[in-house]
Structures are given as C-alpha cells and as structure tokens.
Amino acid sequence: MKYRYLGTSDLRVSELCLGSMTWGSQNTSDEGHRQIDTALDAGVNFMDTAELYPTNPVRAETIGGTETIIGSWFAKTGRRKDVILASKIAGHGNPMVRGGEPITAKSVREVLDAALKRLQTDYIDIYQFHWPNRGAYSFRQNWRYDPSKQDRAAVAENMAEVMAELAAQRQAGKIRHFGLSNESAWGTMAWNRAAEAVGGPRVISVQNEYSLLCRLYDTDMAEMAHHEKVGLLAFSPIGAGLLSGKYRPDFSPPGSRRSITADLGGRITPRVWAAIDAYVALARSHGLDPAAMALAWVLTRPFLGAAIFGATSQEHLQNALSATELTLAPDVMTAIERIHKEHPMPY
Questions:
Q1: Of 41, 94, 125, 333, whose CB neighbour count within 10 A is largest?
Q2: Per-domain boundaries in the chain
Q3: How far is it, in rounded angstroms, from Cα 102 to Cα 98?
Q4: Which CATH number fits domain 3-241+292-328: 3.20.20.100, 3.40.50.2300, 3.10.129.10, 1.10.230.10?
Q5: What are the pLDDT digits (tens) for 261-311?
Q6: Distance (Å, rounded) from C-alpha 58 to C-alpha 285?
Q7: Which candidate in 3, 5, 53, 217 is catalytic?
Q8: Is 145 a catalytic residue?
Q9: How far apart are CA 7 and CA 171, in angstroms?
Q10: Is the whole model's pTM more than 0.90, yes or no?
C-alpha cells in the first residue's frame, strides 16, 4: 500500500480509501465491520462515509445508517485513531435528506453534531460538502448543465456564512480539514477565496467521479488541483462495477447494484457497452483482472489523492486491494489512451 499527503494537509492517506455506501442496504453491519477489518489489515487507513448513506436505494428512514455502523465499529474496537475519516453533509435539493434543505451555517452545526454522535467520535478528519447548493454537473448533468441562473452574490454570501461556521467548528476541534464533492473548478476556487477572507479551512480534496469511463476531471479540474494543491478523491473508479465486465446489456448478477438501480445512475447508455468491451478485452489480453486494471490505472493519475472503492463481498474487496500491487505496462497504458479516444464519453 502506498501513502500520500492529501493536499497541503498533514493527513498521510492510503492510496485506496474504503467506501461505505452499501453498509446498511446491500451489506449488513457485521459485513461492514469485516470490510473495515480486512481493509485495515491490508494497510488502508482512510474511510469515507456520508450523512446520505446507505444508498441503493436512498431512503429517508436509513439516512445516517452507515455512519452508525462505523460508529459501532469504533466503539467495539477502540481504533478511531487508526482511521482517517471523511464524511459529508448533503447539499440542497434531495427531499429525503432534511427535507432538501441547503448547506447553511445552521445545517452544518446540526448535521455535524448528529454525525459525530452516530460515529461515536469527537472529530471528523475531512468534512465534505456532498454537492453544492447551486447545483452541479455531476451524475450526467453535464449534458444539460446551465450555470447561467446562478446568483453570484447569493452564492458568495452563503459561502462566507458557511466558511465562518467551518472555521468555528475547526477551532472547536470537531473537524480537522475541509473537502468538497461533485464540485467544479470555479466552485473550488470560490471556496478557497472564502477561506482566505475569514481564516477558514482551505479545500484539501474534491471527491468527484473518475474512472476510465468518466474523465471529466482531466482538464480544468486537473489544472486547479495542481495549482491549488487539492487532491482528487476519485469515486466509482471501476465505473460502478461496469469495468469489472460482470454486467451485460441483458444481465445483472443477483444482488448487484444494477439489479437494484437499473440504469446505474445514468451510466447505462447504448454507447457504454462498446467501451466496456474494449477495456475488458485489453485487460484479459494481458492476463489482468479488468476491475483491478481499471483501479490500478486511476492510481497512476498525477492529481490523485486516493481512489474510493466499495465492495459488497469479501471477494470484491480483496480484488480491489490487489490493484495496489499492479503495475501497468507501457503498452497497456498506451492502449488505454487509444480506447479513451475511441470512446471518450460513453455516458
């Protein structure tokens, strides 16, 4: 397992981060605990969760359930200090989470305190905004994204208010660092300007989708990450399981994510299957597991802080962990770029 410092922080995180969004829906509490034990034994020291979790599906009655599972593991093992923990507050618009209320100073105070109680800890290492109040182009919204209706003055006022609260929460010791999710380059820079104005925490990480099938981060976000020293926490690095090759147009393994969410959050398109076939064929022609190859490739990216992987079985977990031992040959890397040019935006 390799480690790197995240952004300009003192957090030395493992290159793989254990995702938890299936705990409490597709996985039981005991299975979640076993995943944590296995990941830590393999050298993982970084774990991500959220107020919203579990997902698949998101239900009002299970909001916060995954944080509760993690908290019970901390209580059982006493190993809070062995884990760098990231969690998130949901942004405006999802009616199942606090009625869809936005991120404000008040909601930060209330949601953070509730999360700490569920997690049975006094602090969160990275407190993240799950998506911006103003909207985002994540989750296929890039096809119709229109920021022209955003009110810059209102956005700036909210950022100033919320950043002052984050500064207070950091001073109180409840959060150590600040991160974003499903964010843009402009949004990240705007949050850093707000931090500079009030002495609040700068952004150390952005958690956006990134994989062989979704490379929106490669341009403006990559430039921002370099100059602002912001690490990418890449979620869905195996394309929500698509890059494993386990799905076909007419087949989903029982109990898999696609068996619950048929379009995998808009990832199932007529174009995606040819791209998947090309990457899977490349992996197999070199004797590689397709999912491990996809994850190993993400680990090579220069702007990466960590890749967040999830698993619904110990087999999936072990396969993901194997990616840290995999070095992709130059001809594999060259072929990946060729396939990307042939299938640049498959969903």
A1: 125
A2: 3-241+292-328
A3: 9
A4: 3.20.20.100
A5: 999 999 999 999 999 999 999 999 999 999 999 999 999 999 999 999 999
A6: 38
A7: 53
A8: no
A9: 20
A10: yes
